[in-house]
């Protein structure tokens, strides 16, 4: 049967704190320990070139295998991490892990590019550029094959430092994407002042867009904007063939979403790619996705 043992005051305090705040487990110390104990992992979601149907790039996405809480998605902990001092070490781990993985795939003959998520907060840390470039060097990956996706969650602090970090990365050949465009702080002002080479349209605009006149208009306008600034345009959250056709017809260059694939563990990527039915040719991928 059930046995109740008396609680110490400290345990009781923790329990009560836990009831008040169900994130009591999420502390800076817990994040540092998780890094130390290898509890984070990356999954990789393929991005497909809309016109050729080729998979040229993957986005790395972090997950936490928590010993008590099981698998935790980034929405459950990245906002906390970004708001605290641990975003530096986490982004460093992500960049090193993703780039090393790309190096391993390269040795298997898979020529892919990788996108890594970073927080605007990371950009005021001038060691980030160094870390990423060193990881590229170690893995034998040219920086041209790496894209840093920047998500704004708060007005960018120390804007001049961010400009310096991004300019340095861009000068090395790395690509920069503005993530979740159309939401929050991912704004036009940033597009003008920062050296982005890609726009990722937020999935809240893309999923089911064919059912919404205004969503289609907005995507079309963002595509025009991207064209006029010489940027690649990526649609995220492509869940159906209808979404895919719509963003393709509106002129998006790249599509990402569950229609193509969910994010995959590293070991599932090579067999998935081997099964991907690419037949190059204009708009061929649209037909391929019909099956
Ligand atoms: P994001 O960078 O915009 O990544 C895309 C998110 O959309 C991912 O969620 C992905 O799994 C999800 N997604 C992709 N296709 C579809 C689709 O067709 N339908 C739907 N409903 N969702 C789709 P995930 O992996 O839960 O990541 C959420 C967010 O957490 C990311 O949004 C990013 O802002 C953040 N994040 C993830 N990994 C990292 C990381 O390594 N570092 C940092 N700083 N942030 C990360
Ligand atoms: Mg992203
Ligand atoms: Mg994001
Ligand atoms: Mg996004």
TrEMBL record:
Key word Lipid biosynthesis present in the record? no
EAL domain location? 24-277
Swiss-Prot/TrEMBL GO biological process terms: phosphorelay signal transduction system
Q: What is the protein name stated in its UniProt record? A: Transcriptional regulator
Recorded superkingdom: Bacteria
Q: Which GO terms describe its molecular function?
A: cyclic-guanylate-specific phosphodiesterase activity
Keyword set for this entry? Phosphoprotein
- Whether Phosphoprotein counts among this entry's keywords is yes
């Amino acid at each position: 049967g059930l046995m109740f043992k008396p609680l110490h005051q400290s345990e009781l305090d923790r329990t009560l704190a836990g009831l008040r705040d169900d994130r009591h487990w999420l502390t800076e110390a817990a994040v540092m320990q998780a890094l130390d104990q290898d509890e984070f992992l990356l999954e990789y979601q393929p991005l497909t070139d809309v016109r050729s149907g080729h998979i040229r790039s993957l986005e790395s996405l972090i997950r936490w295998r928590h010993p008590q809480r099981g698998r935790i998605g980034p929405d459950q902990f990245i906002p906390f991490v970004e708001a605290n001092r641990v975003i530096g070490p986490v982004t460093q781990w992500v960049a090193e892990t993703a780039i090393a993985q790309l190096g391993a795939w390269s040795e298997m003959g898979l020529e892919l590019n990788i996108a890594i998520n970073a927080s605007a907060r990371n950009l005021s840390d001038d060691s980030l550029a160094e870390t990423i470039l060193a990881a590229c060097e170690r893995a034998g990956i040219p920086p041209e094959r790496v894209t840093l996706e920047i998500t704004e969650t708060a007005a960018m602090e120390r804007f001049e430092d961010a400009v310096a970090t991004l300019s340095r990365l861009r000068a090395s050949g790395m690509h920069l994407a503005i993530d979740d465009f159309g939401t929050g702080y991912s704004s036009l002002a940033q597009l003008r002042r920062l050296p982005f080479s890609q726009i990722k349209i937020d999935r809240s605009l893309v999923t089911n867009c064919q059912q919404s006149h205004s969503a289609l208009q907005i995507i079309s306008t963002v595509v025009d904007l991207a064209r006029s600034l010489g940027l690649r345009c990526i649609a995220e959250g492509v869940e159906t063939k209808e979404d895919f056709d719509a963003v393709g017809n509106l002129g998006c260059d790249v599509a990402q979403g569950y229609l193509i694939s969910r994010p995959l563990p590293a070991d599932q990527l090579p067999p998935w790619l081997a099964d991907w039915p690419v037949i190059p040719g204009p708009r061929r991928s649209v037909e391929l996705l019909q099956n």
